[in-house]
Amino acid sequence: MNDVLVRAKGLRREFGNGQRPVVAVADATFEICAGDRIALVGPSGSGKTSLLHIIAALDQPSAGVIEWPALGRAEDLRPGPVALAFQGPSLLPPLTVAENVALPALLAGTAEATAAAAAQALIEQLGLAEVASKLPEEISGGQAQRAGMARALMGEPRLILADEPTGQLDRAAAAGLMDVLFRHVEAAGTALVVATHDQAMADRLPLRWTMTERILQTGTSCTL
Q: At what angle do helices 171-188 and 141-153 cross, to 10 degrees?
């Protein structure tokens, strides 16, 4: 059986106090295994982003259990075996695009020249060469989104979580980003979970999980 990267049972995430907390995730039970390709779909507000943040150990569930059997402890997931491409702005303002992309590799101990070369290769593949030396405030939202994806691909993570990675891109740019993303995960055997409203993106992933009424409905994930 493939390595189980993530295992969760009965996850629940509530926000707010009092008698009527906002329920973002309710009773989510699932496994993510090495090599899985999962589209996480559902309407806005259904809890997709909250679930990704819990999987990445950026947030803790209000109830339930989550563990990372083949990846280690929650505090060791990033930078390293888990990478998250955020939906909103995530680049560090004082760093250039190239420096932002190289950062995960540098934090993992990669030599500066090696990290810079790998970052430059990703930057070129994602059509960002002309803005590599610019600061985040000097580039467009779509360019920042592509830079965030390039940063997520650095360091050879075993699991990539992407939150609406094509949300600010036109059709051509979205297709280009998908091509680079899928080429990288296929070559490295990386597991991928993409929260998306983009039907073209979802159709390229063999597994589909649907957040309906804030409850995660999953198909078969781990395979023999």
A: 0
